[in-house]
Amino acid sequence: EFCERFSYYGMRAVLVLYFKYFLKWDDDLATTIYHTFVAFCYLTPILGAIIADSWLGKFKTIVYLSIVYTLGQIVMAISAIHDITDTNKDGIPENMSFHVALSMVGLSLIALGTGGIKPCVAAFGGDQFQDHQEKQRSTFFSIFYLSINAGSLLSTIITPMLRAQECGIYSQQKCYPLAFGVPAALMVVALIVFIIGSGMYNKTAPQGNILVKVCKCIAFAIRNRYRHRYSQFSQRTHWMDWADEKYDKLLIAQVKMVVKVLFLYIPLPMFWALFDQQGSRWTLQATTMDGDFGLLTIQPDQMQTVNPILILVLVPIMDSVIYPLISKCKLNFTPLKKMTVGMFLAALAFIAAALVQLQIDVSVTNIKKLTMGQLVKPNSPTHILIYFPENPAAVPIRHWSPGKDHQHAGQTGGRLSWRLKFSLQPFTVLTYLIVCVLFHRFFNGYSSILNITTGTLDFGSTVKNKIYFMTYLTNILYILAKFHIKDNAGNQCDYSLTLGFGSSYTLLIPSTFKFGTNCEKSINTALDIKPNSFHMAWQIPQYFLITAGEVVFSVTGLEFSYSQAPSNMKSVLQAGWLLTVAVGNIIVLIVAEAAKLPDQWAEYILFASLLLLVDFLFAFMAYFYTYIDPAKIEAQFAHSDPKDKEKKKSLEMGRKDSDGNSNSDRKSSYTSHNEKKDVQLKLSHFKKH
């Protein structure tokens, strides 16, 4: 379980940055595909539970789907190897469609695998203990959950560090193959270890899935109600009572309780729509911030670690301090009220994110708004009109031909086209993986042609009274760029400039420039755009609010749901809860593609507003909800009249069901003790997950 959780969360931590910087997708597309993947990860557990309970059993389901899972991780690692299609050995994949196709195949396999085994692993572990081994079972789950937390926490710390490394055969690039490869290797280890223990396991046979039975009961009630929709038929108290002709009253009463809780689930996806953006929009937001924490350097994708750390802190504080204090104040803080507060806190988190985004927009010039004809005044009497491309981040880094004219002193120059190649040296030990757009312009006022290069990036031969452009798109917060200036006579001057994140400089070579020992002192430098200095620490308040909302909303929501449903139908509520997470991620991808808001802070405000609206609706629904005791309701049907059962059985045997179901469906909904225990263990596992 440690290896599996490390594999999943490690891959997911760097996924959105892989989309943005390797596949060259824009923020909206990267966010859309990310949340599509997460949605499928929360839809497939329903399929896995049905396969395990109705067909293969838990052990075979875990083995087969883990193989699928492992193959998916391996395919993802292969898709990130840029050298595969780098035919000209310049560090740029020539066939990006190949990498995209492999990525989609890999993510599909991972979604099927991780989701399919999710409801099986903890329940299978619980099956290894007898009824009298409660102490041993408790110890097992303590270790099991420790492994889950350790795997997920360490992966969000270590995997971004692996991604920060540089690797490659022909050229050194950010090492996404290593970031995906290590999780793939750990998944292989997990599969091998699990299979080795096959002979020691207690493998229970499939006993049928209660979710399928509930769905059939609901479907029959709807069809029967539709057939008897006319006024000549007598009406019934509840629409589920129309299933009475085929299913026993105990099952119908249990389904009624489940449906009552599922109705409250309708507004919940909006919470998850905001919560799961920690791995997409918030990570992308962190890429535009300063991650210098003194001796500690934080990668943008490592900020996700704040969430699990705060969970470990806030859960005991809530249970031991906050809730008892509220109780002493004589406040009726019911579970539904807690969930309402949790959604409100999540909305506040996105308002905080919007405020952070506004500060980022102030400290980083919005390049999309810079157009042809902006006036830049370097340290020279000369005024230079320059062109900024519309969206440099959306253009392949080393193949960029804007096709626009540039001007100097009223004179029109030629069309600008260049091929970027560069290698930059990190400044001191600071190697922050933050996207950085650095514009540099050289104005040659010297009397002869000069050749200017930095690393492997070449300005070409610059002539007098023309301006030349160079653009860095890099992932380093502070770099030391070394410019090498040569003339036709072989004279050389080395000029160094420390470049900050998001900055733009104009370098002017005056007519008085002279080669020699202190030649760099005669080069004038103008700072056109200041480096971004807004710190990542400002994201901590929004992480605190969203995590506090999670603790109040998620934990309380599951506890409430299970207290209001029959013990043998908790798996149905688990399926419903997972479905709300999936739908929430679908909401994100719809908004990301449909809204098209010009500013990111406006999108944060939109999500916060939607959640506040949904929160008000949920509070209204909760106000009219009546709490029940499922055990008492079930007890009313525990000793039903045997004559009624015999009469019902005889009527059913004399009639062929319209939907073709056999009499095997007409049985009590009571499950065995082991089946109840299995369902409870599944839910306990999901809650901790």
Topology summary:
Elements: H1 2-22, H2 27-56, H3 58-79, H4 96-117, H5 121-126, H6 134-164, E1 166-167, E2 173-174, H7 176-196, H8 210-227, H9 249-264, H10 269-275, H11 281-286, E3 292-293, E4 296-297, H12 306-328, H13 335-363, E5 374-376, E6 384-386, E7 405-408, E8 411-415, E9 425-426, E10 436-444, E11 450-454, E12 457-462, E13 466-474, E14 478-487, E15 492-500, E16 504-509, E17 524-529, H14 540-563, H15 570-594, H16 600-623, H17 630-636, H18 642-653, H19 673-688
Parallel strand pairs: 10-16
Antiparallel strand pairs: 1-2, 3-4, 5-6, 7-8, 9-14, 10-13, 11-12, 11-14, 14-15, 16-17
Helix pairs in contact: 1-2, 1-6, 1-7, 2-3, 2-4, 2-15, 3-4, 3-7, 6-7, 10-15, 10-16, 12-14, 13-14, 13-16
Question: What features would you describe in this structure?
Answer:
Helices cover 52% and strands 12% of the residues. The chain has 19 helices and 17 strands. The protein has helices spanning 2-22, 27-56, 58-79, 96-117, 121-126, 134-164, 176-196, 210-227, 249-264, 269-275, 281-286, 306-328, 335-363, 540-563, 570-594, 600-623, 630-636, 642-653, 673-688; strands at residues 166-167, 173-174, 292-293, 296-297, 374-376, 384-386, 405-408, 411-415, 425-426, 436-444, 450-454, 457-462, 466-474, 478-487, 492-500, 504-509, 524-529. A hairpin with a 4-residue loop joins β14 and β15 (492-500). α10 runs antiparallel to α16 (600-623). The radius of gyration is 31 Å and the shape is elongated. Belongs to the major facilitator superfamily. Proton-dependent oligopeptide transporter (POT/PTR) (TC 2.A.17) family.
